[in-house]
Structures are given as C-alpha cells and as structure tokens.
Amino acid sequence: xxxxxxxxxxxxxxxxxxxxxxxxxxxxxxxxxxxxxxxxxxxxxxxxxxxxxxxxxxxxxxxxxxxxxxxxxxxxxxxxxxxxxxxxxxxxxxxxxxxxxxxxxxxxxxxxxxxxxxxxxxxxxxxxxxxxxxxxxxxxxxxxxxxxxxxxxxxxxxxxxxxxxxxxxxxxxxxxxxxxxxxxxxxxxxxxxxxxxxxxxxxxxxxxxxxxxxxxxxxxxxxxxxxxxxxxxxxxxxxxxxxxxxxxxx
Length: 250
Prior knowledge:
Layout: H1 3-36, E1 41-45, H2 54-67, E2 70-74, H3 98-112, E3 115-118, H4 128-136, E4 141-145, E5 164-171, H5 176-198, H6 223-232, E6 237-238
Helix pairs in contact: 3-5, 5-6
C-alpha cells in the first residue's frame, strides 16, 4: 500500500473512532436519563396508613391531568417495589415521622431513579417541556424558582433567587448533586439512629421542635441538606418547572 493511501486510511479510521466516541457519549447520556423517566414519570408519596383527605385527592387528580405526565403514587403497600436490594432502607426509616419518611423517599428516588417528584399539591402547567429541556441540557435538576423566606438552610436565606423550591423537581439520577444529597441524609440518620430508637416519631408531623424527644428538626432531613447542595451545584440547576399550588392542599 502506498504511503498516500495509508495516510488516507489512518485519517478515516481516526475520524471513525472520534465519531464513535461522540455517539457513545451522547447515547449514554440520553439513555441514562430516558431510563429514569421513559414516560415522563412523576413520583408522589403517601407514607401513612391513613386515607388521603379530599383536598389531597383533588390535588393528585389535578397533578395527573395538568402535568401531562405518568404520576406514580407510592404508599406503604407498594414501597418495596421501588427499594433496590443493593440500597435497602436505612434502619432509622421505621422510626421516622410520616413527613420525614417522605423526605427520605424523595431523596432516595431522585438519586437512584431520577425523573420527577412532587408533593401532593396541584400544579400550574405541563411538565413535559421541563423534562425535555433537562434531558437536552448539561443540567442535573429542574425545579421552580424559590421564594423569599422559603429557604431551608439559614445561611443561604439571602440567596433564595439562586435556588429552587423543595416541593417538586425533575432530576437526572446518580449525579454528584443527588449523590451528595442522599449521602448527607444517610449520614444524618446514622448520627440520629440511637436517639430515634428511644424517641421514635409519635405523630405524622413530629419534629424536634415539638418537644416530644424526637431528635430530627422539621427541615433537618431535607431543606437544610437540599438547599445547601443545590447552591453548591447551582450551575447545574434549571428553574423552569411550573410552580406548585401551596394553598388548600391539606
């Protein structure tokens, strides 16, 4: 083979390898997110054994219709279907209040599954465009803009414009953001386990502020962790998600 032909062949091979690398990188990123939300999935949680109020039921119907997404309700009866054998529930889970159980599970789902999460509240628009925008971007999470006074981590109170709210979002799974969010929560539960065994939650909204001996503060499981982590990775955050309705939902 002549030298000129060899150069052409090497050039073509190099070009092929580069194109293959770009294709695989794109395919992995796309598949990684698509697997988490193949049908625009939004997870919602009801961690108690009591029946939902009519307002909650109405909010759930609204979320299913207005979001235009596949809304999956996770309750104690089907929770085991979503817990990965290699990542079992923390031992402390059984001692948590229903509110803190929901904080735990949303963190778990966003880290290991990704897709959408919403509190059982009405939404104000379709989520589909936010799913699509996040998928096409290099961002890791999409939420709605935080409001003044809504920050769960006090040192960041003045940075609320740079944060997203804590009641609804879409995440890509297994990112540095969700990993740190989840691992910080697990570390907290490790530190509280022995106290929780002595003082488990005594009612659904129990918190350290109630004076029952329950050792976890109202925002300690979620807000204090979530907003700290979101601020750290704020360059990877979008805020185009429709805002939830925060009135008359209980």
